[in-house]
Amino acid sequence: MKSAFRSARVAVPAIALAVVVWRLGAGPFLDGVRAVDGGALLAATGIGLLTTVCCAWRWTIVARGLGVRLSLSAAVAAYYRSIFLNLTLPGGVAGDVHRGVSHGRDVHDVGLALRIVAWERAAGQVVQALLTIAVLLVVPSPVRSSMPLVAVVLAVTAAGAVLAVRVRPGGGRSRWKRLRSAVAADLRAGLLRRETPALIALTSTVVVLGHAVTFLVAARTVGVAAPISRLLPLALLALLAMALPSVAGWGPREGGTAWVFASAGLGADRGAATAVAYGVMAIVAGLPGVLVLVAGWLHRRRLTPLPARIPVVVVRAEEVADA
After folding, report:
1. Which of 184, 216, 269, 310 could lock 28 by a disulfide, CB 3.0 to 4.6 Å apart?
2. Ranges of each domain in the chain
3. What is the pTM of this model?
């Protein structure tokens, strides 16, 4: 079952990317790569620094709530490494798993560290969803007519989650009750304590806006001249697609962006080109992660002791014969 799930995480986005190439051809992909210039890469790198620091800060906030120390400098370095791995390895989550495992080894609790990473990413995606729905409710977009229903479903889901957290499980040792108890404890301590929700909302909002601005820069870079008020909802919808499993970042991003651009009358080819330009800009913005990987490798190599030399005893044939 697990192997099938892992295969699907790679196969589905690969198929989505193949369908986009089949329908639109290679032209939009080549246009997206060629359009990226030094100014766009510089903007992406600067915005990437801001969003990475905010993501790392959010990680330290959740970690502190769950009783684990994590310095901001270490979190920024680890987050850059995580972003680079997510953008270069299939699935889009390998970097986060590596980040959690590495931190877990440092604090001698891999399970807790992985939970912290999971809650940190989930909190960011919840804020992203709320911001996207808020904008799509008031700004014209291809999905505006569906947004009231989406908002109602989200409100009901949130109310159910709050009730699940507030209701303390009764006696018994069933697996479900233990899981609910653990989730409720993590939420109370890590996400809902004192000023934590406000800080998570602040950092996540900056991250979402940073990614949206990067998308707008990518759109302008490939020649999309639509006003920002028209592009912003499309950017937020495309960012939601980017949260889906991918092949090193590719697949849902191109398919989703092509669809929203076509639905808005801007052309699927322009949407795919924008997504490709965004992808190139994201890879360049994540390149500091390579430096973190190399620094970590050099540090481990320095600490690894050389193997002890094994003494070799030479026995002459005459000695063997005498024995």
Report:
1. 269
2. 2-141+196-302
3. 0.86
